[in-house]
Amino acid sequence: MNVYLEQLAQSVTTASDLESLTRPLLALLQEMTGLDSTYLTKVDQTAGFQQILYAMNTAELTLPEGLKVPWEDTLCRRAILQERFVTQDVPAIWGDSDAARELGLQTYVSVPVYLSDGELFGTLCGASAVPTEVEAKHSKILQLFAQLIAWQLERERQLSLQSQRAQDAEHRLHGMSLLAELGDLCLLASSLTEVLQKASVLLQRLPDWPLVLPFRQRAAKAELLVTLKLTPDQHEAVYYLIRCYSKKAMEQGEVLWLCQEENEAVSAMRAMLGLKPTGAVACITAENHDELEGGILLLSQSDDLPDPSLILSCTNYLSLLATRLYDQSRLLQMNKELSVHALHDPLTGLANRRYLQESLQRTMAQKSRHGGQLLLAFIDLDKFKQINDEHGHQIGDAFLVALASRLQAVMREGDLVARYGGDEFIVMACLAAEDDANRASNSLSVKLQQATSGTFVLQGVSLQYAGPSIGMVLWQPGGADMESLIQQADQAMYQVKQQRKAASRD
Q: Percent of the chain at pLDDT above 90?
């Protein structure tokens, strides 16, 4: 017995896994009992099968490893139900067993192997085709060996759980690090496209997703943001999958799916990309007020779905970014429009009175410092009320727009045309210090008269306009201030208007 104890001690202390523990125990059990075959089985009660994991065969009776038989008809199950661990005369006790009869079993021993939670793992068994006397102490040894195997299984399960927990913790840490980097990217980002590209590089570090495809959605069409060496058919497969899963993500609010073989279209597209027909799929979407702006499609070969929290967090980050960028763009556009409305006439698009005053004051200050002159022309549209009365305000507005366009067309770059009031316009023309002011004034007067006189065809109505009254003044550094200069131009225009009225009476 001391020899057996030494062998048992050697087996227990040197075993590193279930197999390295079980095989010496089977050999030792066979040596102690004289049975032809000893073996360890695993039972899958859900599937209804029992399978031999490890076996020791030394005589004519051979029970091969890997043998799988229905659980319902096994002697092991009968032994458990009847609490019969040792059966000396199998034909007399279980003569109705086809398996026992075919194998010619005479002696049979079996004890269940239970895990700590009461789950049946399998059985530790021995059998012989010749009658073999099994002593009571052997039954105790059989139970001891079963308990040792159960302890080893429990140890391996605990190690597996610890390993899984460590792996899960590592994945969580990796995920937290990834989210921190993504958060930093999104915080100050000014481009969703750039963030999607960089986020896809971060996600490629994850072992679960061998294929990571960032895309932008433009005019209801996806645009891939990575360069891949794909055939036209493979490109079409990519876009099909993006359309399919981004739509599901938007409509269902999910981030993870398992592609099944029943989905023939998706399976075919996966196969076209070199992936197996089934596998995990994730779709990160960047949504702006329920509108898809872009996203990242992830494809895996695994049939296991990972924790969705990381993918969901990425979706939230990118959607917040997409919404922020959209809102900022709209705010900038609105501010720009407000600025335009604040400084421009809404009908003609010309500078308004406020813009004119600010520009005139700024230009006068600049020319006071560096030298130069200004010509300011005040334009009043004579008989404009008559146009409105005869043709209506719609034609009157069209006339103002057309006249404003003509004025802008004849002015030089750096000059300014503004609508000062209802039918009043002001033109500011810049001159250099050495320019001939009289010649420039005459030239500008001619240009303005030609631009504002003649035929205007407005919405099918042809108008012959004799032109406005135009008053012009010259300003030089040290001259009048801005308000006084405008008053001077207004007075000059009034004098021209009076002269034209007097001429028309003669």
A: 55
Distance set, CA 454 to CA 137, 149, 465, 471 (Å): 128, 110, 5, 19
Q: Which residues, other chains included, contact 321 with Cβ-Cβ below 8 Å and sequence gap of 6+?
A: 186, 189, 192, 195, 286
Q: Are 170 and 178 in contact (CB under 8 A)?
A: no
Q: Which residue has the tokens 């225009």?
A: 493
Per-residue pLDDT of 234-264, as tens digits, reads: 889 889 999 999 999 988 888 889 888 777 8
What is the rounded CA–CA span in Å between residue 29 and residue 25?
6
pLDDT at 206 over 90: no
DSSP assignment string, 265-333: HHHHHHHHTT--SSEEEEEEEEEETTEEEEEEEEE-S-SS---HHHHHHHHHHHHHHHHHHHHHHHHHH
The mean pLDDT value for 41-67 works out to 91
Residues 127, 106: Cα–Cα separation, whole Å: 8
This prediction has a pTM of 0.54
Contacts of 374 (CB under 8 A, 6+ apart): 360, 363, 364, 367, 428, 429, 430, 431, 474, 475, 476, 485
List the beta bridge partners of residue 474: 375
pLDDT of 2 > 70? The answer is no
Residue 191: strand, helix, or coil:
coil
Largest CA distance in the chain: 151
pLDDT for residue 3: 67
Radius of gyration of the chain (CA): 47
Return the C-alpha torsion angle 200, 206, 212, 216, nearest 10. Answer: -30
* DSSP secondary structure letters along 222-266: EEE-S-----HHHHHHHHHHHHHHHHHHHHH---EEEE-TT-HHH
CA 126 – CA 109 distance, rounded (Å): 5
Mean pLDDT of 166-186: 78
